[in-house]
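May I ask you for just one protein sequence along with its backbone structure tokens in two labelled lines?

_____
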Amino acid sequence: MNLSSLTELSFYKLSTNISLVFNINSDWIAPFKLRYINIRSCKLGPKFPTWLRNQSELNTVVLNNAKISDTIPDWFLQLDLKLQELDVAYNNLSGKVPNSMSFLDSSTVDLSSNRFEGRLPLWSSNVTKLYLMDTLFSGPIPHNLGEAMPFLMDLDLSWNSLNGSIPMSVGNLKGLITLVISHNHLSGEIPHQFWSNMPFLSILDMSYNNLSGSIPKSIGSLSSIKFLILSNNNLSGDLPPSLQNCTSMESLDLGDNKLSGNLPAWIGESMPSLSILSLRSNFFGGNIPSQICSLSTLHILDLSHNNLSGFIPPCLGNLSCMKVKPSETRQ
């Protein structure tokens, strides 16, 4: 009650187990003006904490895993905050997310693992990290996403109910490092045009959608790509030879598609850091190239449920750190 000069409040716990409970009356008026609040894995709920009602100077609000089962109240929006970070992930917040919130340069927004609904929100261009994983957002990805938020570096829209195609405006996100849009209902082809504009993209995960067509040759221009995950779609055609330009690849998962052709030898020759190679449940034929044996960092090799023939290269047995799931004939 006497901490009238308090500006920063942090109760941070790495474990998700909650042991500390804030037992504060709903009519309590805080005597301080916080700029920074970081509360993780402590119980604040079930209501959104009303003692924040007069905290009009906040620029960092982290209420992560705080057992809040409520909507974001109107009074919080009326504080007219300029936020550097907003993290209310891993609660049970519901309702629609307003587009009226304002953010400072290089800001972070994390609304993951809640029960928000409606269309994806679009905020100011200052947001660089946006995590909207595992909510109830539906509808298409906004067609003007790239124009509205052009400085995004990390974008995670996974585990929602998004539909429609991947908008071409994503090509404006030239600073992207992470793009995760897996576990949705997206359809259409993977855009062919804009991947050469993303020199920093390291993680691309489009798995568990309804994407069709071929793998774009332009994905081979992603010189920084380490994780390419396109599994569980309806992709078809051969592996584009341009992928051999992705020499930093650590995980390549193209399983559960309709890809065909022979397994290229360049996988073993051009991706020396590869630790996961999963091409399961496709229509690949021919033999297993012996060049795969040169992948000394390979841990997981899954070629099951294809149309492979010939012999398993004996040298695979020399890769002591690998778990091998050998090829099987599609029934």
Observations:
- The first helix runs from residue 74 to 77.
- The chain has one domain: 8-325.
